[in-house]
Design brief:
Number of helices of chain B: 4
Radius of gyration of chain B: 12 Å
Largest sheet of chain B: 5 strands, parallel
Number of strands of chain C: 5
Number of domains of chain B: 1
Strand content of chain B: 15-25%
Helix content of chain C: 25-40%
Oligomer: heterotrimer
Order of helices and strands of chain C: EHEHEHHEHE
CATH topology of chain B: Hypothetical Protein Ychn, Chain: A
CATH class of chain B: Alpha Beta
CATH superfamily of chain C: DsrEFH-like
CATH topology of chain C: Hypothetical Protein Ychn, Chain: A
Number of domains of chain C: 1
Number of helices of chain C: 5
Chains: A alpha/beta (130), B alpha/beta (102), C alpha/beta (130)
Number of strands of chain B: 5
Helix content of chain B: 25-40%
Strand content of chain C: 15-25%
Strand order of the largest sheet of chain C: 4-3-2-1-5
Distance between the termini of chain C: 26 Å
Shape of chain C: globular
CATH superfamily of chain B: DsrEFH-like
Order of helices and strands of chain B: EHEHEHEHE
Radius of gyration of chain C: 14 Å
CATH architecture of chain C: 3-Layer(aba) Sandwich
Structural class of chain B: alpha/beta
Strand order of the largest sheet of chain B: 4-3-2-1-5
CATH class of chain C: Alpha Beta
Amino acid sequence: MSEPWEEEGPGTIKKFMYVNRKAPYGTIYALESLEVVLIAAAFEQDVSMAFLDDGVYQLKKGQDTAGIGMKNFSPTYRALEGYDVEKLYVEAESLAERGLSEDDLLVPVEVMGREALAALMDEQDVILSF
Amino acid sequence: MSMLHTVNKSPFERNTLAACIGHALPGSAILLIEDGVYAAVRGTSHEDMVRGAIAEHTLYVLGPDLLARGMKPEQVIEGISVVDYGGFVDLTEQHERVQSWL
Amino acid sequence: MKYGILVNEGPYQHQASDTAYQFAKAALEKGHEIFRVFFYHDGVNNGTRFGVPPQDDRNITVRWTEMAEQHGVDMVICIAAAQRRGLLDEGEAKRQGKDGDNIAPGFRISGLGQLIEAGIQCDRLVVFGD
């Protein structure tokens, strides 16, 4: 397997950001967005995920879905590292508004302020929002 | 060549427009579509927020969505341009990226 | 310009697929290329040929089919999302042991990689959803 920077020819690398603004379970967006990211990892693009607004709830520790009869997909966020998806950005304001802190999250992330996140969004080539 | 943001939610139902305005860099464009067009109309409780956005960004509203909902271009807050679907396409061409606030 | 379009909502339930269609139509009229329309989440339901809307309403699926046939637009339904929701082509129906298929002409079922590829290949990827 060649690394992306060793590729020749038309191997363009674009910056893809997956923007998550929705809570899990109430709708399927969080789960199916995660499925896109797992597939995208194979394309050796520059992938990052942003969690803001209710999207931060996707990363809440201690999810237990036994009582609602749905699959708990939160462990998958911890598997992302194995897919080389390591850039997980969480918006500080969104956490604070919801009474959450970094300790409440189930995976290591980079917490950043709204302005920094906005600047990061502006650097992307493709923004996929779910 | 900055970002084009689209917003398709009524500001009365969701915080989507506020989230978009909070993240759009100065000089970017915001296009209101579908239920998002209600924010473009004068006289709502969200008018101040929208006028604040006009000061920093270029605002557009999709005319066909406005007309479908019984609103007229004359009711749109000054400073917001009304475009049709062709204008929507032009905006995506004029801006490097499109971010849909869903 | 080369456009990719992502449709995340089902027909009739949400305006997203109507807006996506009007956008695509306007882009084609202006001489742009629509490289691919990718249907995800409930958007896969745009591709069922069994829908029978009232005669005085638009037929969303037929509109997509005609666009595919007249302009050679690649209409791709996500296989993972389609399997959950019962959208099948002939091959998939056979593989899954189902007694029929329901995909409309002009559509094809394929993987999420087709969405990522559209993001890489296209000048713009525009997302329509809820």
